[in-house]
Each structure stands twice: as C-alpha cells, then as structure tokens.
C-alpha cells in the first residue's frame, strides 16, 4: 500500500518538534507545545485519517517480526501442526513449539497476543476519532472506517481461535479507563463483534480488488466466509446454518470471479503464487504488505540451512522445513510437489543464479522470491519485496466446496470448486457420482492440507475440525491423541487453545483463570 502521505506527515511533525524559540523557564512550563501530538490534536484533517489507517496496516506485520535466534512469529502456527520440523534447533522457544511443550513464557505466544491487541488498539483509535474529522469526503471516511473494522475483525479472529474467551476492547484505552484491566468475554461475544465488523465493512464502498494492498470487498467477503465456516465447526458447533452462510458468502466471491476472471482467479502456475510482480492481484485477495524500504519479506527461515540458494551464498536457517512424511503424502504426479514447479524445491541454482545443485531434500519454496534471490542465469535484485499471503482465491474455492457439501452433500458446484484446485495440480478427480458426503468431505480436507500448507491456516483447520491429517494413512485422526510425526508427541486437549502469557496474567489478574492444562 502507499505510505508516502503518512511518511510526509510524519516528517512534518518531526520537524516541528525540532523547532525551538526562546522561552523563559516559566513560559516553557506554561505553554502547550504545538508539536506534541495527541489523539485530540492529531485527528483533525483527512490526511491524519489516512496516516492512522496506514499505521493499523503496518502493525499487522508483527506476524513477520523476530522471535529470537533463527525464528519469527509466523512459525507459531506452523511448528505445532506437525507438517514441519527444524534443521537448526537453536531456538528453545521454537523447539518447545515443535515438541508441544510451550507455555505462557514462550516468546511466540507472547508476541502474537501483544501484536494482535496492538492492531485492535490502533483500529479502535481510527474508529473513535476519524468520524469527527471535518471537512472530509464522506466516501473516503466510510472506506477508512470499513478498513479499520475489517482489520479489527481480522485481529479478533486470530485472538478468539488462539485463546478462546478473550478481552473484548472496542474503545481506546488509557490508564484511567474503567475497563483498563478487562476480563475475558465469551467466544460468542467475540465472534459477534467479528461478524458485525465485517458486515459493516461490506457496506463501506470498498473496491472489489485493490492492487495497492488495502482491504477490498473480496477480502471482506472471503474473511466472512472463513469466519462462518469456523463458527460452524468447533468449539461453537453452529452447524448447518453457518455452513450455509459460509457457502453463500464464498459463492459471492466465486460469482464475481467467474464474471471477472482477469480480476480474481487462480494463477496459471504455482510459481505465480510467489512472484513479486503479481502481489495483491488475481489469486491474492489479502496479503501482508512488504517492501524493503519499510520491511523486507520475513520468510527466510524456510530457506535451506546454510545452502547457497540466494545471492548471499550459504545462508538461510532451515528452522522450518517440511517433514518427509508430509512431502511424500502428495499424490503421485501432483505438480505442487514437483521440483522447481510446485511449492517444494529439491534443487536450486548456486548463489541464486549459478549452476543447478541438489539440495539433498525437499524444502518449502512457497515464499521464495525469485526476483530478489535470482534464478538460472539471472541475478537477483537483492530486495525482497514479496508479500505474505493471508487469503488466496484457492482457499475461497475450498471453503465453498466444504461448506456446500456440509449443507446437502456434494453437488456439481462444490465438485467443480474442488476440481479446479486439483486440475491445477494436474491430478485426475474421480467422478462426482463416486463421492459420498463423507468421502467428499475428506477429499476437500486433504486439498486444504496440501494446497494451503505453510500459510498459517492448517492449525486452525485442526482446531475447528478436531481432526488432523495423517500423512501415513492418508486419512484423518481425532485431534486428541494424534501424534505429530515431527516430534513423536501426541496432541492433547489443552492444545486446542494457547496459554495466556505469564506476564500478561501477572499484570491483569482479571484474565484468570489460565486456559485449561497450563500452569498458572
């Protein structure tokens, strides 16, 4: 997205803070410095509203921030799925995630809580202060408020799925606020806010797609479909009514895509999924925005451990690599598992653009920026501006297929949606008539595991379904008791929720009790 206006405003205010005139001590103490920004003095012109919403977007990038040596926050949602392991094992918190022995001191858990509630706080400021800005174009104001409500809903959707009951904060807070030490609201209450925010965002006049990375109508509807699908499953178990809502909302996006295939569609190749020039377009409905001028793409921890696949030579950490079992679970001929064509590479070019060499194992190249790192005979730019995908059209198709099947069994539309995913993977799909509701259900789940892996989605599928893909049997185990092959450890009931951070509970005793199974 374009932050030029925000950066200009920041420079103006910073410059103002450096301008001093001659005052006596008493004058200085009596005067209110005009350059001291407060929420009251800042939200006065439309440019302030644009700068404020830009700050909310910027805070979503906490997902890519560091979490100690050789680790980033995003690994929280991958390490615990069992589909990945590590080649370095040098970060004790990350090791605890892989081993399913994390607790309220685990840095990734703490960082997610802090990062998500910072997004909520920033969005609350926008929603509280922007309405009073005048004069301001009403359409511009409505869009900014819609974006803020989407981003608040996005943050709370993570919060409620990770921690269950959670503080529901909808107004800016200060130390004197009545609810400064909030108690936890029920999951029902949190989901109500999420749905209300997204419905409001739907009516904000947003464009169907935004190549600048700002929230679009497609993003709002896709996230709402995802929320309804989650509410249909565990723990709320709302069932058929919400499967219907999910199917209908996903179909709105699919209907638009069918009429506007140049705007929303599946990419022709898997390489396009991580092509820098295609970010925020076609299949990418919503992404975390990265640019080296502000922040570079943070997914380097997937690069092979000290192998020369980039211009940096032997580098990368290999702290998130696929398990052999998961890689081998792809069907024979699945293009997603084909070297240098799918999501996994087992060979690459020395220093990014030299001679081809064998990596010795398959690695996740789903987030590998060829433009930045180089390819055969072409040097990389060394500027990793690749975004991180959060919602792809592929997921919308699979949401529709799953939800529609739950409503009344597999029909042609659900079958066609799933088949599109398999067609791109060059896989034959059995005829519609060969599926029962149960067999189609598991077929869609398998596509979710294989298509959406390593995008922060798989863990949430495990929790809402209470099922986990078994790479060995190609079936699905119950969540409780499933053994993660990455660590040989079994999932327990307590793992359905994360622990609250120890320091957070010390600071706010109203958060008690701790989530079940974790020490207070």
Secondary structure: elements and pairs:
Layout: H1 4-18, H2 25-30, H3 39-42, H4 46-59, H5 76-79, E1 84-85, H6 92-98, H7 107-129, H8 138-163, H9 187-202, H10 217-232, H11 240-259, E2 284-288, E3 307-310, E4 313-315, E5 321-322, H12 324-328, E6 344-349, E7 356-364, H13 370-373, E8 388-392, H14 393-408, H15 412-424, H16 437-451, H17 458-465, E9 467-469, E10 476-478, E11 483-484, E12 489-490, H18 502-507
Antiparallel strand pairs: 1-5, 2-8, 3-4, 6-7, 9-10, 11-12
Class based on secondary structure composition and strand pairing = mainly alpha
Distance between the termini: 42 Å
Strand order of the largest sheet: 1-5
Rg is: 24 Å
Number of helical elements: 18
So what's the overall shape? globular
What order do the helices and strands follow?
Answer: HHHHHEHHHHHHEEEEHEEHEHHHHEEEEH
Mean pLDDT: 93
Largest beta-sheet details = 2 strands, antiparallel
Tell me the helix content: 40-55%
Number of strands: 12
Q: Spans with pLDDT under 50 lasting ≥5 residues?
A: 1-34
Summarize the structure.
With about 525 residues, the chain is mainly α. The protein is about 40% helix and about 10% strand. The chain is built from 18 helices and 12 strands.
3D architecture notes:
The chain is mainly alpha-helical and 520 residues long. The protein is globular. The protein has a domain at 291-385. The protein is built from 18 helices and twelve strands. Mean pLDDT is 93; it is low at 1-34. The strands form six sheets. The chain has a two-stranded antiparallel ribbon. The chain has helices at residues 4-18, 25-30, 39-42, 46-59, 76-79, 92-98, 107-129, 138-163, 187-202, 217-232, 240-259, 324-328, 370-373, 393-408, 412-424, 437-451, 458-465, 502-507; strands spanning 84-85, 284-288, 307-310, 313-315, 321-322, 344-349, 356-364, 388-392, 467-469, 476-478, 483-484, 489-490.
């Amino acid at each position: 997205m374009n932050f030029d206006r925000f950066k200009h405003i920041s420079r103006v205010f910073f410059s103002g803070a450096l301008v001093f005139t001659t005052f006596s001590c008493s004058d200085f103490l009596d005067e209110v410095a005009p350059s001291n920004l407060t929420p009251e003095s800042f939200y006065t012109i439309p440019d302030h509203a644009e700068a404020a919403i830009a700050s909310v977007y910027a805070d979503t990038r906490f997902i890519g921030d560091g979490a100690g040596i050789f680790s980033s926050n995003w690994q929280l949602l991958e390490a615990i799925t069992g589909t990945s392991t590590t080649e370095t094992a040098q970060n004790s918190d990350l090791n605890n995630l892989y081993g399913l022995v994390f607790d309220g001191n685990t840095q990734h858990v703490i960082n997610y809580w802090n990062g998500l509630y910072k997004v909520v706080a920033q969005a609350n400021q926008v929603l509280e202060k922007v309405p009073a800005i005048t004069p301001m174009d009403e359409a511009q104001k409505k869009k900014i408020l819609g974006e803020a409500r989407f981003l608040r809903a996005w943050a709370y959707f993570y919060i409620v799925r990770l921690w269950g009951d959670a503080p529901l904060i909808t107004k800016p807070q200060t130390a004197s606020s009545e609810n400064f030490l909030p108690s936890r609201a029920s999951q029902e209450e949190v989901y109500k806010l999420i749905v209300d925010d997204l419905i409001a965002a739907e009516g904000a006049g947003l464009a169907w797609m935004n190549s600048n990375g700002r929230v679009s109508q497609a993003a709002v509807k896709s996230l709402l479909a995802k929320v309804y699908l989650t509410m249909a499953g565990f723990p709320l178990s709302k069932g058929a009514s919400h499967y219907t809502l999910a199917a209908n909302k996903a179909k709105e996006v699919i209907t638009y895509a069918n009429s506007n295939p140049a705007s929303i569609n599946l990419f022709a190749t898997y390489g396009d999924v991580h092509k820098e020039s295609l970010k925020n377009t076609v299949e990418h409905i919503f992404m975390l925005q990265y640019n080296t001028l502000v922040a570079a793409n943070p997914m380097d921890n997937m690069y092979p451990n000290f192998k020369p696949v980039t211009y940096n030579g032997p580098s990368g950490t290999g702290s998130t690599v696929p398990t052999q079992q998961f890689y081998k679970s792809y069907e024979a001929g699945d293009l997603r598992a084909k070297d240098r064509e799918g999501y996994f590479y087992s060979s690459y070019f020395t220093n990014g653009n030299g001679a081809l060499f064998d990596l010795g194992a398959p690695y996740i190249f789903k987030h590998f920026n060829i433009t930045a790192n180089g390819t055969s005979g072409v040097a990389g730019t060394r500027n990793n501006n690749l975004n991180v995908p959060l919602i792809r059209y592929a997921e919308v198709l699979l949401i529709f297929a799953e939800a529609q099947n739950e409503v009344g069994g597999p029909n042609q539309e659900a079958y066609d949606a799933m088949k599109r995913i398999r067609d791109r993977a060059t896989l034959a799909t059995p005829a519609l008539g060969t599926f029962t509701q149960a067999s189609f259900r598991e077929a869609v789940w398998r596509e979710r595991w294989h298509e959406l892996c390593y995008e922060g989605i798989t863990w949430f599928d495990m929790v809402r379904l209470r099922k986990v893909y078994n790479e060995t049997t190609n079936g699905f185990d119950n969540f409780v008791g499933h053994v993660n092959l990455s660590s040989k450890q079994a999932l327990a009931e307590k793992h359905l929720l994360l622990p609250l951070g120890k320091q957070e509970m010390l600071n706010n005793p109203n958060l008690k009790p701790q989530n079940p199974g974790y020490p207070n």
